[in-house]
Amino acid sequence: xxxxxxxxxxxxxxxxxxxxxxxxxxxxxxxxxxxxxxxxxxxxxxxxxxxxxxxxxxxxxxxxxxxxxxxxxxxxxxxxxxxxxxxxxxxxxxxxxxxxxxxxxxxxxxxxxxxxxxxxxxxxxxxxxxxxxxxxxxxxxxxxxxxxxxxxxxxxxxxxxxxxxxxxxxxxxxxxxxxxxxxxxxxxxxxxxxxxxxxxxxxxxxxxxxxxxxxxxxxxxxxxxxxxxxxxxxxxxxxxxxxxxxxxxxxxx
Length: 253
Ligand code: NDP
Hints:
With 253 residues, this protein is α/β, with parallel strands linked by helices. It has a single domain (8-246), classed as Rossmann fold (3-Layer(aba) Sandwich). Strands 3-2-1-4-5-6-7 form a seven-stranded parallel β-sheet, with helices on both faces. The protein has seven helices and seven strands; from the N terminus they run E-H-E-H-E-H-E-H-E-H-E-H-H-E. Helix 1 (17-28) crosses helix 7 (222-233). It has helices spanning 17-28, 40-51, 67-81, 104-133, 159-179, 207-214, 222-233, and strands at 8-12, 32-37, 57-61, 86-89, 141-146, 184-191, 243-246.
C-alpha cells in the first residue's frame, strides 16, 4: 500500500456519513482533500477533523445536481491544489417506499443526486485526472463510485433507489474500459446497511418499514466503508480493485 502524499482527492457528500469518513481516511494517507456538499457548517466540522491530520482541505459548497456547480467544484479544487488525482462520487439519497404511491419528486431527486450528480462531477474531473495520472507522484488516478448492495439485490420498496445504484455499477464498468488507457482506474464500492441516518430521509410514514428491515442487523460504521475506498485508492498503480461489496456481516440481502 502506498501513501497519498502530494495527491489531491475530491469527495462528494463529504458533510456526513460515509463521505466524511472517506475524506478523513484519505487525509490520513496524506492526500489533500476537497470536501463537497451543500451544508457548509457540516463540511467545516469535517475539515476541522482533517486539520489535525495535517494535509490541507478545501470546503466547497455545491449541489452536484446542478451541472454548473458540479463543474465549479472540480475547478475550485484544481485552482486551490493544482491537480486532482482521486474523485469519490459518494453523494446520494435513498427514499424508500412502494412505486404505487411514491411522489415522483422522490424519483427525480434520487436520479438527480445518485446518477446525474455523479456524471457531472466525473465528466468535469476527467481531464484533470488524466493529467494527474500522467505525472508524479503516483502515475495513476481514481474514480470511486459509491453504489449499494441495493444495486445488486433489488427488493420490494427500493425499486427506484436500486435502479439508480444498479445504473452506477453499469456506468462504472463502461467508464472503466473507456479510461483504462489513461491510467484512470474506475471502481465501485457497494456497501450494505451503514449506520449514517441515510434511511431517515425516507418519508415518515414509510420509515417503520425500513427500520423493521434493519433492526436486527448490526450495521456497518461509515469508517468500515471508508477503509474499502482507501484500499482501492492506495493500491499500487499496477493493481485495479474495481469492485468491493462490503455488507454488514449478518445482513441477509
Ligand atoms: P448521508 O445522508 O450521511 O450522506 C449523504 C451525503 O450526500 C451528505 O453529505 C449530503 O450532504 C450529500 N448530498 C445529498 N444531496 C446532495 C446534493 N444534491 N449535492 C451535494 N451533496 C449532496 O448518507 P450515507 O453516508 O449513508 O450515504 C453516502 C452514500 O452511500 C450514498 O450514495 C448512499 O446511497 C450510499 N449508501 C449508503 C448506505 C447506508 O446504509 N447508509 C448503504 C449503501 C450505500 P448535504 O446534505 O450537505 O448536501
